[in-house]
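Posting this for the archive.
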Amino acid sequence: MWRALVMLVLLGLAACGSTRAPVPGGGGAVAEPVSCVPYARARSGIQLSGDAWTWWDAAAGRYERSQAPQPGSVLVINRTARMRSGHVAVVTRVVSSREILVDHANWASGAAKGRIARDQRVVDISSANDWSVVRVWYPRINNLGASGYPVRGFVHPRMSFASAD
């Protein structure tokens, strides 16, 4: 009996573990419902605020930025007519030169609005393979969405030593 109880406790503890790699610089817990900005800030450790699309310019001189995804970096999607605030998502894995996985919040609509989604596919569909336009996984259809979204770039959690111009 005692042996069975010990085994159950050990199995329960093993179930608490995660095979997901931690996101560098972040990992803060966030309660749902939540929008993408506070979620990305908590997960990445990047201390920016304001609408998602403004993160690119706000990071200038404060954080490193590039057009190349890296685990822990924040993908900044520009605003559009349908998405006036833009969107940010935290890169969890670079799958290939044209595909990444992200964790983000508030991407879905309806009952899933404000929910956190993990390891969601994002695919670069730009003609120059430069991450300027992406398609994002849409859970409701269990596939990539049909829309292409303009990307400003990736903000990395490392501080920049360049001056802001």
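The chain has a mean pLDDT of 85. The beta strands are 63-66, 74-77, 87-96, 99-105, 116-124, 133-138, 143-144, 149-159.
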